[in-house]
Amino acid sequence: MPKNRVREKQLKQRRSLDLVSYHAASVRAQQRVLELDVFCRADQVALYSPIHGEVDTALLFSQALEAGKSVAFPRVEGGSMAFIATADAHSFATGCFGVLEPCGTEHVAIDRLQLVVVPGVAFGRCGARLGYGKGFYDQTFEVRPSSCVLVGLGFSFQLEEDLPKEAHDVGLDYIVTDEETLAF
Questions:
Q1: What are phi and psi of 110, to 5 degrees?
Q2: Is 90 exceeded by the pLDDT of residue 98?
Q3: What is the mean pLDDT of residues 63-84?
Q4: I need a surface site. Which of 46, 50, 124, 156 has the fewest CB within 10 A?
């Protein structure tokens, strides 16, 4: 199935989630990330601000801060994505594409990020990720140190058996959903 058809199908299914189911599944998925050794060991974590019904990251944010980890969120700057350190859930403003972005000024280099939690529209059981088509995560993590682990976070219905993948698509190290954790 072409990428645009997968996007349509997955976004429609995400929109159909009722609020109670959304919150319960978001918490279950985040708890699975909290159980990962890579989360426990990481000192520098990057999260995302959810849009369009993506899995929430508020629990990950609060637990990371409580554990003394440094946390960064992406911000679009110029035509690329930068990661900005933040420890305050209220220091965000609406940015590019309507996404809440951090207001801070402290940039975090990619080679300092040990765990990056990545959103997606769909995920392949082979470690592939399908985003909205702008390529920000693919461009940002095209070249990354092995110490930078990418974890796709989604709902179980977002897993696709056969997800279209192109040469420039960056693979994930883990995919975590409300029902399972896949390692690659």
A1: -55, -40
A2: no
A3: 95
A4: 156
